[in-house]
Amino acid sequence: MKRIVVLASGRGSNFLAVASAVSRGMINGRCVGLIVDRPGTLAAVRAGEHGIPVFTIDYSVFSTKSAYEEELIGTLRSLAPDLVVLAGYMKILGSGIIREYVGRIINIHPSLLPSFPGLDAQGQALAYGVKVSGCTVHFVDEGTDSGPVILQRCVPVLEDDDPGILAERILAEEHIALPEAVALFCSDRLRILGRTVIRLPDDSGEQVPGSL
Q1: DSSP string of the chain?
Q2: Which band of pLDDT confidence, cut at 50, 70 and 90, is reported for residue 206?
Q3: 174 close to 112: Cβ distance less than 8 angstroms
Q4: Active-site residue set
Q5: Is there a cis peptide before residue 114, judged by omega within 30 degrees of 0?
Q6: Cα gap 110→167, rounded to integer Å
Q7: What is the tens place of the pLDDT at every residue in 85-119?
Q8: Distance in angstroms (rounded) separating the CA atoms of residues 173 and 154
Q9: Residue range 2-199 in CATH 3.40.50.880
């Protein structure tokens, strides 16, 4: 059973989707901690309701980003995660953390990457005039929303959409996509080959040469 640590910054709806899937036995893992970057988040409240330990590392009290990340990586090491899930975590991880957990950090982003990385992906999509948007779960690398794609889900973009309406439509798909990706990882069904993520069948014990 894999040890899962989730990082979040806000209301924690994607965290709740993962925690609920764990509770229902859909994920071969255990959420051993939620790390939040500020006090008073709804994500922390939801973690408490599921009996998941909460670790608050308040970004605002650190004089530098490196000091914050030193505390963050120390907390991660103490939790010994097999998988780190970024679920609405609004900080960019430093290269030291990414290198230590390479191939073991996943993120959910509200666009069909590589289109519209970074902030306000929904606004970017509307400004560009696309007819289809969605969400992407990907492994995290040292770029911005640039790691290998695990899976994607699509939604239509309607003529009367604004960023908030589109965001809610995408969020419903995020709540499906993120637990699915976590379940695949925790079942050892994902292999990274260059930029391609291979999904192994349920009963496969196959080892792909050159994979992580």
Answers
A1: -EEEEEEESSS-HHHHHHHHHHHTT-SSEEEEEEEESSSS-HHHHHHHHTT--EEE--GGG-SSHHHHHHHHHHHHHHH--SEEEESS--SPPPHHHHHHTTTSEEEEESS-TTSS-SS-HHHHHHHHT-SEEEEEEEE--SSSS-SPEEEEEEEE--TT--HHHHHHHHHHHHHHHHHHHHHHHHTT-EEEETTEEEE--TT-----TT--
A2: very low
A3: no
A4: 109
A5: yes
A6: 7
A7: 999 999 999 999 999 999 999 999 999 999 999 99
A8: 8
A9: no
Q: Is the backbone of residue 20 left (phi > 0), alpha (psi -120 to 50) or beta?
A: alpha
How far is the C-alpha of 106 from the C-alpha of 83, rounded, in Å? Answer: 8
Place of tokens 């960023």: 163
Tokens of 209: 């040469």
Q: Angle at the Cα of 68 (from 38 to 55), degrees rounded to 5? A: 45
* 111/121 Cα distance (integer angstroms): 6
In the chain, where the domains are located = 2-199
- pTM for this one? 0.93
Sign of the torsion angle spanned by Cα atoms 101, 43, 136, 199: positive
Per-residue model confidence as pLDDT tens digits over 24-71: 999 999 999 999 999 999 999 999 999 999 999 999 999 999 999 999
Give the amino acid at 27.
Answer: I
Q: Taking the mean position of all CA atoms in its chain, how far away is CA 172?
A: 15
